[in-house]
Amino acid sequence: MQSRYGVRPDHFTRMNTQELRDEFLASGLMQEGQVNLVHSHYDRFIFGGAVPTSGSLQLENDADLRADFFLQRRELGVLNLGGKGTITVDGTAYEMNRFDCLYVGRGSKSVTFASADGGSPARFYLNSAPAHKEYPTTRNTQDQANRVDLGDDEHANKRVLYQYIHENGIPSCQLVMGFTELLSGNIWNTFPPHTHERRMEVYLYFDVPGDELVMHFMGKPDETRHLAVRNFEAVISPPWSIHSGAGTANYRFVWGMAGENQAFSDMDAATLGDIR
Ligand SMILES: O=C(O)C(=O)C[C@H](O)C(=O)CO
Ligand SMILES: [Zn+2]
Questions:
Q1: Which residues hold Zn(2+) (predicted)?
Q2: Is 201 in the pocket of ligand 1 (CB under 6 A)?
């Protein structure tokens, strides 16, 4: 598991492109036959990918957690972004179709991932945060997620949010998780942007076609920088940073948050006039 230690806003403005990418961008998360995890020290959020092919993969404990097992003091959210698969939690198997989400409660000792067809593997995207109590392990389909329609064609930001783990959905200690899809011909996400000093957030971009990319914007609203992001790359957003993107084509992205509260609407909106 890689560690990312975090940066102050005044330090952030002095970083060059490579330094920004090294600190905030995570690549290579979805490698076939592997589990790859990144541990951000913002809210101790762990994110990554598990792509089982011929055999199953285990969510292994990590020495950095000083725990007896990975979920001893943590909760986990998993979204399947690939082919059909199964997640087995302490002996109970959950069938996972594309866009099914599984919440796994604190205290679960064994979590394994498998694909129905290794040639078209499940691509499990994982978000985990420290947890103070156990909530039930729960699977929801895309139909069970809360749908929120945002944006309009005039601003090229028409998009649909699917909220799975949130205040009025699957209950959790602090994890909030779902994904957003841009409708055809639309390219902007989360613009005008916002910050939420109470929560950090990670975006994983996916279904970015071919060589297309998303220019992801971050920083305080009046000191923005950008990262060029490809398919299955994630960006860590510190609580003080906007998180927004414009693609050269349309795309989807998973958002996951942890921190002080779970109120999705607790955002400090930036106006277009604030952005520099
Ligand atoms: O398209 C959007 O707008 C989003 O998906 C916003 C994220 O969900 C977010 O930033 C929540 O804080
Ligand atoms: Zn946000």
A1: 194, 196, 201, 243
A2: yes
